[in-house]
Design goal:
With about 500 residues, this protein is mostly beta strands. The chain contains three helices and 35 strands. It comes from Plantibacter elymi. This is SbsA Ig-like domain-containing protein. Keywords: Membrane, Transmembrane, Transmembrane helix.
Length: about 500
């Protein structure tokens, strides 16, 4: 019995040894295979060099924002390379860096609309050397986009109460009939957040309501207001989904209440929150002569009714800041934290990040030329409306001048009889939109109790560098112009 048990044990031991030996051979075969495969991959890498896996790009962001990126993702680590290895057609300023994600290009300024870009990177190698590869990629930026407001004209002998509906239409500078995104009996003004239109509709009395329109399905939601009243200076901070406006209640003047009081609300998953007053320096509700969102933030720059200049943020816990006094918030300088402010004793550039200011360089013009609205296109380039009054003839001629480092050049001049109403810049400052009223003397006004406009205004889209008119469309209040603090 004992012998049998030992024989049996030896049998199991011999079988186990055989199994371990087979498993070892299997492991060895797998390891050899992996080495062969890995070696083959290494050989391929050494003979072909890095390859482009994908390009990460946001074309819309590239034309609307500063500091946007394009990433060329590659299939392996690469050696550092300089900007001399990178070519962009058409040419554009950029910074380049390399890292684990590949090659990153940062564009300090927005790119041009409706343009095909091609990026070529030469001499891309692995960190230890090896064959060099050339990587190429391309992308297209979208055409210039936006919305404008087209109010139906009031016919002779008629009134604003009997005219056709007003429309918000998509910008179509290439020609053709613009697509209508929304229409209502009386549209006072509007602004945009993503696919939503924030619309102020006006009653015959001038009282208003705010409607949020989803342009994807046409659905609408009304914003809850504390009471009936007039709404002005509607503006949005799109990235923060925040809306602001000034509100004057219907009963103001009899028993006090809101008068040009700053209100704000948010869009949360496309639904508006209830509008609430915005508190100022002393915690009390802000009464504003004008205001605007600081670009790319939810901060509000406010000139109060007593001309104090305040910086506050209803979405933050930071305290409001008093920045001095001002007579006009003129224009933000694109891509910076600076704003052009007009004061009693001159025009300054105020840096909202530091609170420091410096004089704005004004051009030399004829004493008869009266300066109007100014729009900054960069730190060195601006556009401004000037009106030249001929006292002897009793006539006024307008034009838009480009101002660069204190020197001027004519950018736009309207046809005889036309009046320039306002101007603003496209998000990338490539174009200037000039609102013009043709044959102003015969146009007449549309009869709105609040924010009336001449009949028949047109938007002329002008190349900011060449002065060429690239498109004309009926309407005004172009969505580009939100945030200026000035009625368009």
């Amino acid at each position: 019995m004992t012998t049998d048990r030992r024989d049996a044990a030896r049998g199991r031991s011999t079988q186990a040894t055989g199994d371990r030996s087979g498993f070892g051979r299997l492991v060895a075969i797998v390891l050899i295979a992996l080495v062969v495969i890995g070696g083959g991959a290494a050989v391929v890498g050494l003979t072909q060099g890095p390859k482009l896996v994908r390009t990460v790009v946001d074309p819309t962001g590239l034309v609307e924002s500063w500091g946007q990126r394009v990433v060329l993702a590659v299939n392996q680590p690469i050696a550092d390379l300089g900007s001399d290895r990178v070519r962009i057609e058409p040419a554009a300023d950029f910074d380049v860096s390399t890292g684990a994600g590949g090659i990153t290009l940062v564009f300090p300024e927005p790119l041009a609309y409706a343009t095909d870009y091609r990026i070529t990177v030469d001499g891309v190698t692995a960190p230890g050397g090896g064959p060099a590869a050339t990587l190429t990629t391309s992308f297209s930026t979208p055409p210039v986009e936006g919305f404008s407001l087209v109010r139906s004209p009031v016919k002779d002998g008629g009134s604003a109460a009997t005219k056709s509906d007003d429309r918000i239409v998509r910008l179509s500078i290439g020609g053709g009939e613009p697509e209508t995104a929304y229409e209502a009996a009386k549209i006072q003004e509007f602004a945009t957040i993503g696919d939503s239109l924030i619309v102020v509709e006006q009653e015959t009395s001038g009282l208003g309501r705010i409607v949020v329109v989803d342009t994807t399905d046409g659905s609408t939601q009304e914003v809850a207001l504390p009471m009936g009243g007039m709404i002005t200076s509607l503006q949005t901070a799109p990235a923060q989904s925040r809306v602001g406006f000034l509100f004057t209640e219907q009963s103001f003047g009899r028993d006090g209440g809101d008068n040009l009081t700053l209100y704000s609300f948010e869009l949360r998953q496309g639904k508006p929150t209830e509008a609430a007053r915005v508190g100022g320096i002393d915690g009390a509700a802000v009464q504003a002569a004008e205001w605007s969102f600081v670009p790319r933030t939810s901060s509000m720059l406010v000139r109060t009714v007593d001309n104090s200049l305040e910086l506050l943020d209803p979405a933050a816990t930071t305290d409001p800041v008093l920045l001095g006094r001002a007579s006009l918030i003129s224009s933000y300088i694109p891509g910076t934290t600076k704003v052009v402010i007009e004061q009693v004793d001159g025009v300054v550039v105020l840096d909202l990040a530091t609170g420091k200011s410096e004089p704005f360089v004004l051009p030399s013009v004829a004493p008869t030329e009266i300066p109007g609205q100014l729009v900054a296109l960069s730190e060195s380039l601006s556009a401004r409306i000037y009106a030249d009054y001929d006292r002897s003839a009793g006539t006024t001629e307008q034009r838009v001048l480009a101002i660069k480092d204190g020197a001027t050049a004519e950018l736009y001049r309207p046809d005889p009889g036309a009046v320039i109403w306002s101007l603003c810049a496209s998000p990338n400052a490539e174009y200037v939109a000039v609102v013009v009223v043709p044959d102003f003397a015969k146009a007449g006004f549309d009869g709105y109790a609040n924010a009336p406009m001449p009949n028949g205004p047109e938007i002329e889209v002008v190349d900011a560098r060449t002065g060429k008119v690239v498109g004309t469309q009926a309407g005004f209040d172009l969505s580009w112009c939100a945030g200026t603090g000035i009625a368009q």
